[in-house]
Every structure is written in C-alpha cells, then in structure tokens.
Amino acid sequence: MKQKESQKELLxxxxxxxxxxxxxxxxxxxxRGITMEVARLARLGVVVEPEVGHExxxxxxxxxxxTKSGVVDLRFRSLNPAVEPKxxxxxxxxxxxxxxxxxxxxxxxxxxxxxxxxxxxxxxCVGIPCIGVPGANSWKKHYTRLLADFERVYxxxxxxQPGKEFATSLSRELPVTIVNFPDGEDVNSYYIKYGADAIxxxxxx
Length: 205
Prior knowledge:
CATH topology of the largest domain: Dna Topoisomerase Vi A Subunit, Chain: A, domain 2
CATH architecture of the largest domain: 3-Layer(aba) Sandwich
Radius of gyration: 17 Å
Largest sheet: 4 strands, antiparallel
Oligomer: single chain
Number of domains: 2
Number of strands: 8
Order of helices and strands: HHHEEEEHEHEHEHEHH
Helix content: 25-40%
Structural class: alpha/beta
Number of helices: 9
CATH class of the largest domain: Alpha Beta
Strand order of the largest sheet: 1-2-3-4
Distance between the termini: 42 Å
C-alpha cells in the first residue's frame, strides 16, 4: 500500500512539474482545438526536465490520469507527427480509464471514446461527459460495471475498422448508442472541422 501511495505521489509531482511547461505545446494543442485553459484544467504538460526514468519521454506531451485520490498514471504523446511511436506509456503500467472523474460529474448519460485527446475534446470542449481508453483493445470488464447505472451510454466510434469493432464489442456488454464518424475521422478531427454543435447534433444531444 505504501509503495502505491509513494508511486502516486511521484506521478503527482512529475505531472505538476511538466504542467509548468504546457505553454511549449500551445501551437500543437491549438491545432487540435484545445485551449490553454482546457489543457491546464486537464493538467497536461510537456516533459522538459524529465524525472528519473522519464528520459525517453523528453519533449513529449504528458497526459495525467487523474482520480479523486490523485494522479494514477501518465501517458506521453509525441508533439511531432513524424515521431513514432505516437503514444508511450510508463513501463509496466496497466492501462487505465482516462477522465474517470466524469463518471461522478455526469447526469443520466455518459460517453466513451478512444484516446485521451478525443475524450478531452468531448468532455471539455463539447460539454458531453466522457471517459476514454488509450486504445480499442484497452477495455476491461469492470469498466462495464462502473457505467451500469447510466440511462444512456454513447460510444463515439473512430471512423476506422478498430473503432467500429470497439463500438460493436461494447454493444455486447452495455446498452449503448453508437455514434459513427466518417472514414478517417474521429471526435477531435470532426470537432475541428465542424464544431461542438455538429457533434452534439450527431449524437442527438
């Protein structure tokens, strides 16, 4: 237990430190329709002076997974589209649900989508409470129980094969409403092109 607490403390410290450099990602975030205010509220950051063990994430966007008890995970996204891999996680870390605080903030409906920036777009820019998973294969059985009390669960499916399969597999576990995007589009790209109202309209919200 103590080890878990100290790990959480270290993640919290790292996230706070990286958050101070968020201005370095301003152009990138602006290109994704995410304001500095939204980025700060989500505690996004940039790894400028890496904590011990974080050297491989140098120059990446840091995305903290925040719960009521603090930061439980960090993921890192490349700010340069040419740099692979696009996303990196902490070594040995289990994948977790992103933006889990929205489960408590939500009313009678909630959305699910793939990817942290898509989740942030829906939750903070469009105003639809949303939780996310890092990828289509990251869904875990106990997440289903967490969402069982909602009257409506919307799955915003990326416009590609994994996105469609993700939505279909969730529909076997939960009574979901699937919101499909055109080929090659996702929440964020659709938001940038057409705005928040178009996404709400697409979902019938």
